[in-house]
Design goal:
heterodimer; A: MetI-like fold; B: MetI-like fold; globular
């Protein structure tokens, strides 16, 4: 029974995949495809190809020699195989360092923001702290405030406390900003947490911290994992605040490094293709690993 | 610890406050304080160093007369079309097509595959998408080369460099980026719809379009609200694509309020003026969110 409640709670975040439903029993019989079915499928396939074509362009042109590009243009398949554009760009922008910075910042934010969200939600959803509803409203406002109206004061404050141009400054800022959404989501989930479980643990003499760690966290684990995945990718993609807060080359993230290229390589198209390919590779990799989590969407959780 | 027996008071709310501390201190320092500072700064003349000089509403008066602000504001509507209206409409159509046409004939795997494919651009860092599209749309870029190779030279343009086409080009890139978000949210919303509803409607002779209108759209109302609200807010504060693709140019043809504010914060150092711009932006966002939510609760009450 408890299992069911938890599953329902998670339903708002990770909707059970229809495929798991059909795999438990007999799969519903497919309908007749017909000519119309194949035509629709073909049209969709063409639209998908068009959507993903820019990715292919980056990959195909990054491995061409400039001579090949000049002679056959960007649309042709490569007649040559040359990694020098990729290697050259990697060295010039010290891409390894940027990758390290992005991973460090995004992973730290994911962990810290999940912890903050969990602690907040524990107090608001289970503790039902006085004034919790009002507090949640204020936090939601934090989700809606455009970052633009925080950017200069944060820039100024970070300068005055000596954190400007450090990766720590970006970690702190995004851990707080992301946890606003996490607090909202987890509070909603925890409000309907089975009270019997809490009471049973309490009767057994468990402290609040023990209840959080041994009762709440194990049941929330799938939700926390989804939340961390999204925090990671959202932080990875952030642009404005990292652009303003990270000046030194050694501190910049992949996003900032890409954004400040300013098309300086337009006269060197294979390098531009190489830059695009290197920039999108980590995201595509991440996508392939976490595809199921990402495409089920988290926004639905915000509806309820 | 005393275990009370009444089910309501069994878990007392005092003592949970300490769990709120990390989150609330962070929120106060990273969101509330900067937010209030920004409002205060908007009433001053300040270059970022030295003491700000109080000027009352002077910045706001100037803002109302600044033609460029209104141009930027106008462009916000173009971004609402490109980021909220078109992706929501297209996403609804695609989600319905995948859910009750493709999945029925070609299985869940086919529809999940398409969903994942269309979603991919959405998790790309905007800066990376900017480099990629900057290259595709440059005067000597992929698009023009492709047009030339099929004999359509006369259609070739300086897509991002010509004031006539720049805004449309950026809008196109935004549709490409945003479609996946609405598609994923709508499809996860559809997974709670009972497929037999569609079958029953079909038996009653409802056409695909009728089912789309009366089942899909009716069932997805909460998701349409969420997607509409979040993407409209995102459109009002769009920054990175403009920064990366056009820097607001050519001739301010693509400038937006966020870019305009960034320009005053960090290029002209008119910090007070920048703060006034972002304060107006915040105000518009909050008012809009308020009306959206009112509309949504109204709809739900009506449904009950």
């Amino acid at each position: 029974m408890v299992e069911n409640v938890i599953k329902q709670n998670n339903g708002s975040v990770a909707v059970p995949a229809p495929s798991t439903i059909s795999s438990t029993g007999a799969a519903p019989p497919l309908r007749r495809r017909g000519v119309a079915g194949w035509v629709v499928l073909g049209l969709l396939a063409i639209s998908l190809l068009v959507t993903l074509y820019p990715f292919m362009l980056a990959a195909l042109n990054a491995i061409k020699t400039p001579v090949d590009y000049g002679a056959n243009g960007p649309v042709a398949l490569p007649h040559s195989f040359d990694l020098s554009a990729l290697i050259g760009f990697w060295r010039r922008v010290d891409f390894g360092q940027k990758l390290f910075n992005s991973i460090l910042i995004s992973a730290s934010v994911a962990v810290v923001a999940v912890i903050i969200s969990l602690l907040n939600a524990y107090a608001l959803g289970i503790g039902r702290v006085n004034g919790g509803k009002a507090l949640l409203l204020v936090v939601m406002l934090g989700v809606m405030i455009p970052q633009e109206s925080l950017v200069y004061p944060i820039y100024y404050l970070m300068k005055s406390v000596g954190l400007f141009d450090t990766r720590l400054s970006v970690i702190i800022v995004f851990a707080v900003l992301q946890s606003a959404f996490g607090t909202y989501l987890l509070s909603t989930v925890l409000t309907s947490f089975p009270r019997e479980l809490l009471e049973a643990a309490q009767i057994d003499g468990a402290t609040r911290l023990q209840i959080l760690w041994h009762v709440v966290v194990p049941l929330l684990r799938p939700t926390l994992r989804v939340l961390a995945t999204f925090f990671f990718i959202w932080t990875w993609n952030e642009f404005l605040l990292p652009l303003v807060l990270l000046i030194a080359n050694d501190n910049q993230t992949v996003s900032v490094a890409m954004g400040t290229l300013n098309n300086q390589y337009t006269s060197d198209p294979t390098t531009t293709a190489a830059a695009s390919l290197l920039g999108l590779a980590p995201t595509v990799l991440f996508f392939l690993i976490f595809q199921r989590t990402l495409t089920r969407g988290i926004a639905v959780g915000a509806v309820k | 610890m005393s275990a009370k027996t009444s089910s309501k008071g069994a878990v007392s709310s005092s003592g949970y406050v300490i769990y709120l501390m990390p989150g609330m201190i962070g929120f106060a320092l990273i969101v509330l304080l900067p937010f209030l500072m920004n409002i205060a700064i908007s009433f001053t003349q300040w270059r970022g160093v030295g003491a700000p000089r109080f000027v009352g509403f002077a910045n706001y008066e100037r803002l109302l007369q600044d033609g460029l602000f209104w141009v930027a504001f106008d462009h916000s509507f173009a971004f609402i079309i490109a980021m909220a209206v078109v992706p929501t409409a297209l996403g609804l159509f695609l989600a319905a097509l995948l859910f009750d046409y493709i999945a029925e004939r070609f299985g869940e795997r086919a529809s999940s595959f398409f969903r994942a494919g269309f979603y991919l651009p959405q998790i790309l860092p905007i800066a990376v998408a900017g480099v990629l599209w900057g290259w595709i749309l440059s005067p000597i870029g992929v698009l023009n080369a492709a047009l030339k190779s099929v004999g359509l030279d006369f259609l070739a343009q300086n897509w991002l460099g010509d004031p006539k086409t720049a805004l449309f080009s950026v809008m196109f890139v935004m549709v490409w980026l945003q479609l996946g978000y609405s598609l994923v949210v709508f499809m996860s919303g559809l997974s709670r719809v009972d497929p037999s509803l569609y079958e029953a409607a079909e038996l009653d002779g409802a056409s695909w379009l009728q089912r789309f209108r009366h089942i899909t759209i009716a069932m997805l109302k909460p998701e349409i609200f969420v997607v509409g609200l979040t993407t409209t807010i995102a459109a009002l504060k769009v920054f990175a694509p403009v920064y990366v693709l056009t820097q607001g140019g050519p001739n301010n043809a693509t400038t937006v309020p966020s870019y305009f504010a960034y320009y005053h914060f960090f290029t002209t150092s008119r910090v007070g003026y920048g703060a006034a711009i972002t304060t107006v932006q915040t105000l518009i966002t909050v008012v809009l969110a308020y009306f959206f939510l009112r509309l949504q609760t109204g709809q739900i009450n009506e449904a009950n």
